[in-house]
Amino acid sequence: MDELGKVDRDFFDSILYPNLGAAADDVVLGPRHGVDFGVVEVGGQAVVLATDPLSALLDLGVDRAARFALDVVLADVAVSGIAPSHLSVTLTLPAEMPDDTVAALWRAMADHARDLGVRIVAEHVGRYPGVDASWVGGATAIGVGHRDAVVRPDGARPGDALVVSTGPAAEVAGLFSSLFPDQLGLSASTLRTARQRLDDVGSVRDAIAAVDAGEVTAMHDATEGGVVGGLIEMARGAGVRFDVDSTRVPLAPDVEAVCDAIDVDPWHVTSAGTLLVAVDADDADAVVDALARRGTPAAVVGTVSSGEGVFADGESVEPPASDPSWAAFAALADES
Question: Could you tell me the CATH number of the domain that includes residue 272?
Answer without folding.
Answer: 3.90.650.10
